[in-house]
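Lecture 7, part B: from sequences to assemblies.

Below are the input chains for today's worked example.
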Amino acid sequence: MKNRIHPALIVITVLTFLFLLGPLVVIIGSALSDTSYLTFPPQGLTLHWFTNIFEVSAFTRTMGTSFMLAIGGTTVSMLIGIPAAYALARYRVELPAFLGNVFVLPILIPEIVLGFSLMKSLASGFGLPIIVALLIGHALIVLPYTVRVVGASLNSFDFSIEEAAVSLGCTRIKAFFVVVLPNIRAGIIAGFILAFITSLNDVSISIFLTGPGVSTLPIQLLAHMEQFFDPTIASASVLLMGVTVAVMAVVERTLGLTFLTK
Amino acid sequence: MTQSLTLENISAHYGSTQVLEDLSLHIAEGELVSLLGSSGCGKTTTLRLVAGFLEPTAGTIHLGDRDLTRLPAHARDIGLVFQTYALFPHLTVRDNVGFGLKQRKISSAERKKRVDTMIERVGLNDLADRHPANLSGGQRQRVALARALVIDPPLLMFDEPLSNLDAKLRVDMRVEIRRLQQANGTTALYVTHDQEEAFSISDRVAIMKGGRIMQLDTPEVLYSQPSSAFVANFVGFDNMVEMEVVSDTGDMVQAQMSGGSLIDLPKSRFKVPSKKFLFAARPEGLSVTTEESSIGIPTTLGMRTYIGRAYQYHCETEAGTLLANGPQATPRPLGQVAKLVPQPDQCCLLPIES
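Predicted structure of the full complex, as structure tokens:
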């Protein structure tokens, strides 16, 4: 017996993939174009625009800042998010329900409002150095991802496992590290990656918090595009895409990607 | 180094709700006592108090002469077996079993020896290097049992350990639990809602209701001499009829039911608690007869159900519907007029509770 597939399904599937992958093809094409302006299909082929990224010091500097912020901001959000997610899951009955939603606020509030209020409070109000304000801002916008994704694996965690460890002589704190953490590892890695990518690609918060001398790669790309409409921006985008794909590939190899779709 | 467990005047609250009320319980060294009751009766709360996961609002808990009441859970040295097995998913069977010894800083050579012995005793030699995800429910509970036993605890506690297993396995596992508990001579507290399970393996059973122990005794005594209507009902005395003593003639007491019928109760078996009392009978304690001369409760037979070893009749009487069993050999028709004759060894008399 043969499964019949409706022709419309094939058409919709193809269109969906075109919609998802088309822009990426355009970007990759533009990045390779041997012209001094963005164009597609590419005219001539060159890797010049890729090397250009590393020759323009503004790009290399902001790339460093971006990676530093993504790692730093995600780490800070993990330090807050894992204990928060643990408390929310462990004391689900005792804690008021709205508390869980508080941690999602950063993605519910319009980013422009959040960015502006962070600028007013962190940068203007407390007069924090730009890099510190950026770090706090990034930690804040990725917090919902860490709390939610880590929370998802904690919700399926059987807390009697923790009690079993305690009954066998572990203190509560030790049991958390020895028994709880290893079993929510997948959630932590998934949360870290989601947060890392979100931070790396953020524009709306960073644009308010960056200032003289300190910028992130996406902001630098924006600024660059306003002045020069050359394919560097496309090649930088391809590079960011490459980093994302590489991270995903590593995760797929070690954990399987299914936990992201669960 | 097994020890006795003593709970004295324990009370516990969840918020403002009282879940245990002045509960006292003593389990002797090497004894297995079950807490039996429906959900919300306080049996699991009691276990969690002893384990140290909850704190009592009043009372004391002693293990041997050690006061556990305010001791943190990890320092109590109690072997626990959970309903969900609670194995460490990221560790092999061997590491699961060895976990407690590792916490106790036992040398790895000594640890290996004790773990291997224990794994052998629960019959899991071939599975020692597997992870829990690759084991069946029964195997998982064996690992949990080995993990709790290997630390040689003075007290073992079981929280509905067999609820997640199928019926056949439940019977095998409870025998296994009893065997290991007796072989080690470990004092044990066993929480369950399954009467058969509790009765089959316990030295004594505490039947609980509303945060209190209603009756604590050997299964034999509970089964034949319940002390209250609640316990009687719990252990299968499905029929309860109010009665009043009308005459006392030497070795017989004659009593009258609310509807007027009389029954005879031999004094050799029954001790009448007061002038008015409750007469309780199991379905097999009322035999259905059509002999005119017999003394019993007049009835009209209603629905008949087949329960395997007998037929069960829903009998309409002046005191309401009673359940009575009749032999398989003679199925009786619906609507037949008959009498229910009490069988003394399947009946008991109880005080009327206010």
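Note for the exam: The helical segments of chain B are 43-51, 93-103, 108-121, 137-149, 167-184, 195-201, 219-224, 229-234. Keep this in mind when comparing with the next example.
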